[in-house]
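DM from R.C. (forwarded with permission)

"hey, sorry to bug you on a friday — could you get me a structure for this? deadline for the figure draft is monday and I only need the backbone to look sensible"
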Amino acid sequence: MRGETTVKKPELVKGLLNKNKSIPSKYFYDAKGDELFTKIMQLPEYYLSRAEFEIFERHKIELFESCEIVANKHFELVELGAGDGRKTRVLLQYLLEEGFDFTYVPVDISQNVLNVLQKNVNDLKGLQIAPQCGDYFDLLEKLKDNESQKIVLFLGSNLGNMNDDLAAKFIGGIAENLKKEDRLLLGLDLKKDASIVLPAYNDKSGVTKEFNLNLLRRINKEMGADFNLNKFSHSPEYLKEGKAVSYLESMAEQKVYIGEIDTTIIFKKGEKILTEISRKYDEDLLYNLISKTNLKIQKQFSDSENLFSDFILGLDI
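My reply, with the result:
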């Protein structure tokens, strides 16, 4: 999930001391991580952003028709994990051109990325924007009592960074904070061949590699560790069940000292640190995720190559 967040020492150490080592993917996003991820989204191999952008360009009218926005009535466009706003800009421009009365509420736990977003949409005349730095559900709970209709955006297949149980709970948490007239626009990367998926996580120019290694650089900086980045390689895989997983693989037997907690981590040659899971979806999996909620799928929009889909969900009450 997007957003700069302070490294939590117990959580980090637990992951590195486990038999199957891991670092939570939320720690990708410090200022350097935000910058690198922006570059990733513009890479030719990274089809996810390009495909969702195409959906917005081709289907923006139908998207908002499916949301059943009440004419001449104010609504809130709430984007969870908003990032830098480049993709959402297509939707914002359309809504402004058509004269909709709305407030854009980008939500992220990174103030840095919200500052970048505001610069990227600063030229959109008439845009009412109310950025919120903090927890998604705290904000949704506050907005639930508002009379305004809410269109909640959770784009870029950010849901795929969670395991299926957590993703189901997350979707359930959103559902609990929606009213009958509210809608959720959920962007999901679809299951497809590894020949398409893997290059998106292992680009030729090495930006994704740098993004992954930045996790170790961040731990060195914030916790006084001595990870030697030259002794770890970026190692992505695509599993049969439809998961792209990224690892940092130790290229030698080595010890890493984390000064702030006076702890030494031992690595065997070839041992891997799991840094990211990116789940790919089909309709059956999405139905399973929402099966314990009152949400129902109302509409699905896909790009021309059927790589990615945006789903409109509403409460079935």
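R.C.: lifesaver. The chain has a mean pLDDT of 92.
me: no worries. The CA atoms of residues 210 and 279 lie 21 Å apart.
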